[in-house]
Amino acid sequence: MRSTMKDLIDENKRELLSDPSAINEIEKKLDDKKAKEVYVDSEFTKE
């Protein structure tokens, strides 16, 4: 049986919601990515 993308996404959401440490890890990665984007952006706007 093939799963649709929506089915796969829904299953991943259920898994994440049952594992708080996974959510924390994802949030940390997103924060790190945002920090890098801000740093890179500020580097390019310097004169």
UniProtKB/TrEMBL annotation:
* Source superkingdom: Bacteria
Q: Which InterPro entries match?
A: SenN/SenS
**Protein name, as recorded:** FbpB family small basic protein
Question: Pfam family of this protein, just one?
Answer: Fur_reg_FbpB
